[in-house]
Amino acid sequence: MALMKLPLPAEIAGVRLLESGRGGFINIKGFPLKKREKVASCSKGIYCSSQQGPPPAWPGRAVAEAGRRSWEGPKPISIVGSTGSIGTQTLDIVAENPDKFRIVALAAGSNVSLLADQVKTFKPQLVAVRNESLVVELKDALADAEHQLEIVAGEEGVIEVARHPDAVTVVTGIVGCAGLKPTVAAIEAGKDIALANKETLIAGGPFVLPLAHKHKVKILPADSEHSAIFQCIQGLPDGALRRIILTASGGAFRDWPVEKLKDVKVADALKHPNWNMGKKITVDSATLFNKGLEVIEAHYLYGAEYDDIEILIHPQSIIHSMVETQDSSVLAQLGWPDMRLPILYTMSWPERIYCSEITWPRLDLCKLGSLTFKAPDNVKYPSMNLAYAAGRAGGTMTGVLSAANEKAVEMFIDEKISYLEIFKAVELTCDAHRSELVEHPSLEEIIHYDLWARDYAAGLKLSSGLSPALV
Questions:
Q1: Which of 214, 224, 252, 177 is nearest to 404 (CA)?
Q2: Where is the 1-deoxy-D-xylulose 5-phosphate reductoisomerase C-terminal domain positioned along the sequence (predicted)?
Q3: Within 13 A of 29's CA, how many CA atoms are on the CB side?
């Protein structure tokens, strides 16, 4: 197993990188990896644990125990990342269902104006702003608030929101490894996790899964694909799952010829054909890195081997994903492309909440007409093969892949690198990490290598020919 070599732009249209989207990697630089299971210390003074490996996966299914309800009235919810795309859509759901949900705590990064409006509307008991320099501004904005609340700041403040004693479910909407510590805190406090932060499993899976088992919390996926899988496998007996089929819209460039990708502009990548999302995830949809990361999540969530997780281009985004059972039956979950639906299910589980046809249009297959599918193009989307390679490497490699991609996307949006250089930056960062890979990392190691990957990707100088050189 090896990370692949990406073709140069002049070659990209005519080179078949890999034999298959599920394996068949070109070997480079002496792969396979030698994984370190126990080390005494890391650079920068980070202590490296030698904990046992995680259970093979989260069970995938979630059983609602009798008598589990522990609250009166509307379900108490905390949101970490309330001003982002996931957070604002979660609050839309709460606003429409005040008899079902109430907000007890909110945390945001730096959007003080929107956070203040949210606090005035939903009246949480606790609010956190990650950017400590903005606390005074937030207090001024809330000077006329009609209820008493506590304001906390920094990472510790966000963690306090995540483990608020009254919260039953915590919606984790922070992008990147910044969401890892708050999610761990919520798990340790026994909160169910409405999982919208990919890094919780992609980077933190080897640490987070044993913790979730220990504290007996429910991990309820809030993204559309994993919510679809989660819904499809409820009630399946052990051993019934044969294959996972992740559907992908194909993003902004699904109809572009490969040779045109060298001319991609930021505005082009932000034109998603189906979904209304934040900039980072929209670019990830264009590169298909979002789907590669979901492959890794599916491995951790459902215990599927990488050879049994497939990606399928489905332009209409109506089938959100499918599972195949051992007897070859295929189960699918369908719905209009609306992120509120999977978020709602993570909040209401195990119940199903009635939705108004005005704000939640019902699916009309006759009106839709047809559903189409095609195999993904490995040349157009080299991200898939990088993700499968990182997944098979395991340990800290998956977190490095995710962090490098996040930094590369940031640089692309800031017009510091080209679209094709996103793939190259991620490949080079993962390649550089091979000798330092830790198979069973501690939380400190996971965070350490997340930061390392961002710094390394940012320090790459990528020429127009994609020939790398360290600055």
A1: 177
A2: 219-302
A3: 14
With vertex at residue 36, the alpha carbon angle to CA 30 and CA 39, rounded to the nearest 5 degrees, is 140
Which position has the token pair 């609010």? 127
The answer for residues whose C-beta is within 8 angstroms of residue 232's C-beta and 6 or more apart is 321, 322, 323, 331, 332, 333
pTM over 0.70: yes
As to burial, measured by CB atoms within 10 angstroms (0-12 exposed, 13-18 middle, 19+ buried), residue 355 is: middle
pLDDT, tens digit, 9 for 90 and up, residues 382-433: 999 999 999 999 999 999 999 999 999 999 999 999 999 999 999 999 999 9
CB atoms within 10 A of CB 12: 20
Whole-angstrom Cα distance, residue 194 to residue 172?
6
Dihedral, CA of residue 122, residue 127, residue 133 and residue 137, to nearest 10? 40
Nearest Cα residue to 233 out of 331, 152, 308, 319: 331
Greatest CA span in the chain, whole angstroms?
64
Tokens of 79: 């949101």
- Pairing mode, strands 241-248 and 319-325: antiparallel
